[in-house]
Specification:
- The chain is an alpha/beta fold and 278 residues long.
- The chain has a single domain, classed as Vaccinia Virus protein VP39 (Rossmann fold, 3-Layer(aba) Sandwich).
- The chain has 13 helices and eight strands.
- α3 packs across α4.
Length: 278
């Protein structure tokens, strides 16, 4: 569904439920953003009570996205399909990509009305590059791949970065998550790259499972997965070094000042990885 189609059906403001917590707004709160409501802050504070390092975990996850984007751009890739974009927080993916490659093209996809409301912040492309936004759902990959904004912005004859950061843990069944990855990768040519991060209970079982319970009680299905299940999402692809690791350990950089100096694997509790299609 296009942004224009969504606007013709129901004004986005009418869909912004303020009576129930919203995962994108909670994530925004963890990032110290302003696009959240009291109900989101209440749920987020409950998460922080059982998992005090949640802000560090979210920053580690976002920092991984920045590093992964730079790494892909430095490999020569110039196109991104970013699904599960979330509320814009600068620098956004296209700003990172275009800082390396000004001609980079990025299509953002999200199904949350609040992201649609803020999508203009995702459209500030460099003159040489291009950005677009699709209001779509990862559980409907065919609609995403067939969206006019995707077909007009990306060239599927050239490699594409498929980026799904902190998204697939909202798909309850592993088989469904695998099918989504396979379908989205299918039309992408050799040399394309898959970038994933995913919450896990491996590293802090007690705290992470309490977080999962809070999300589920709030109406957002959250499924934490062990390392082996997350790795299976990369089946058939070549994982880049260092493989699947906690998000802050994927090619860390010294300049990431948002993270505590001694952040631990348990405090992050996200796995991350990047793989190439051959």
């Amino acid at each position: 569904m296009s942004t224009e189609d969504q606007g013709q059906e129901t004004p986005p403001s009418a869909l912004l439920r303020q009576d129930i917590p919203h995962s994108a707004r909670m994530y925004d709160y963890f990032l110290n953003g302003k696009d959240n409501y009291p109900v989101d802050r209440e749920a987020a504070e409950r998460v922080l009570t059982v998992f005090p390092s949640m802000r560090a975990a979210v920053w580690a996850n976002r920092a991984f996205m920045h590093r992964a984007t730079r790494a892909a751009a430095q490999r020569g890739l110039r196109q991104w399909l970013d699904i599960g974009t979330g509320i814009p927080t600068s620098p956004n993916l296209h700003e990172v990509a275009q800082s390396v490659a000004p001609d980079a093209r990025v299509v953002y996809v999200d199904n949350d009305p609040i992201v649609l409301v803020h999508s203009r912040a995702l459209m500030t492309s460099s003159p040489e590059g291009r950005t677009a936004y699709v209001h779509g759902d990862v559980t409907e990959p065919e609609k995403i791949l067939g969206a006019a904004q995707v077909l007009e912005t990306l060239d599927f004859e050239q490699p594409v970065v498929l980026s799904m950061i902190a998204l697939l843990h909202f798909v309850p069944e592993l088989a469904d998550a695998r099918a989504i990855v396979d379908r989205l990768l299918a039309p992408l040519p050799v040399g394309s790259v898959l970038v994933l991060s995913h919450a896990t209970a491996d590293l802090d079982p007690q705290g992470a499972l309490k977080v999962q319970e809070i999300y589920n009680q709030a109406g957002t299905s959250l499924k934490l997965r062990p390392k082996a299940e997350f790795e299976s999402l990369f089946d058939g692809l070549e994982l880049l070094e260092p493989g699947v690791v906690p998000a802050h350990r994927w090619r860390p950089e010294e300049s990431e000042s948002r993270l505590p100096a001694e952040v631990t694997d348990a405090q992050v509790s996200f796995y991350a990885g990047i793989a190439v299609k051959h």
